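Now for a chain:

_____
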Amino acid sequence: MDTLSKVLVFYYAAINIVLLILMGVDKAKAKKNKWRVKEATLIVCALLGGGIGGFVGMKLFHHKTRKWYFYAAFGLGIILHAILWWLIYTKF
């Protein structure tokens, strides 16, 4: 595995773990009526490559499941980064 691949794998693992944790923290805070993670933060993390972590967090914590735009943002994040990987590795 070349250096770029290693960096990308580390980056995507990290951003997905971050979004998964943010979803859990937001759900816990919501239950206690405390400070919340901004929806924009969750969406930006998804668009930066954390869509899979977002979907896992959505299902694991039963959080943000009624908001269509989270499904859209998480899905869009996955699609955009899949295209990015394809462009990088096919040297399009």
Remarks:
- The CA atoms of residues 16 and 45 lie 8 Å apart.
